[in-house]
Fold:
Amino acid sequence: MLDREEHVEQAHFFGRLAERTTLGMSTQELLGMVREEALSTTKLPLAIDFLTGELKLNGVFHPAMAKLSHYFTPFQTFVIGEAESDVGRFDMMLALQILAREAQYRAQGATEQGIFLYEFESLARNRLGYDRGLKAIGGDPMFNQDWRDWIAIVRHQVGLVDFADLIYVRSEHYARRHPTADDEQPRAVLFGEGEGRIALANRGKDPLLLFNALHRHLGYPEVPRPQKPDASPQLLPQLARRLEKIEARMKLVEEELKGGIDITDFYVDPQKPPSGENPQ
Structure:
């Protein structure tokens, strides 16, 4: 478990990388810039040096994050690995934004419930794969053995059992409504009354509706979403092309009003080579 200042620096690290990926600079240069901003009293500068060395050797830095398992969680390594994958479509900027918000939440005092729901929502919204993703989530040292056992159950039952049911049966709301018999082994209660009530109300619905309700009522952090591309840089060229077409049509209308269109203007001289080609 890291100190609060380490999480604050991690949030700054991932956030600054996400902001500067649009500058057209290499990742190695971006790491060097962010390193200058990191507090020297934390372990982040050493971690950035190790990531930079791995990047120079292999062109990616998620293997270095895996080796620094005492500093980066398995989920952080998994997310960066998916963004660096050649076969996936997961954007690196979005991956960095997800990790920045998670680190910020940890610095504010995260709970096991909040971390699990945030990371699971990240898998669901970005289609990152539940099997390896839940395995990475379960490797977080924040979770005790009861949590790890339940995450393993979710890993094998997700897609077969409604996710809202998986939360509901491990909540205080369910335990209060269905007391355990004397001869039954009590199951660990992992979620509170509020999570249980919201899960019960969203049974059989899209899990994204469940996540939205948890954000509204319990204040859990929202997962960043892909941003629509900015079309403003292409707006002026598009308007210019449309004006050219309008001017050409107006010219034809004026010629027709003056007495007709001279179609000879559109004839092509067979002896003249097309534009862009050199005469033989």
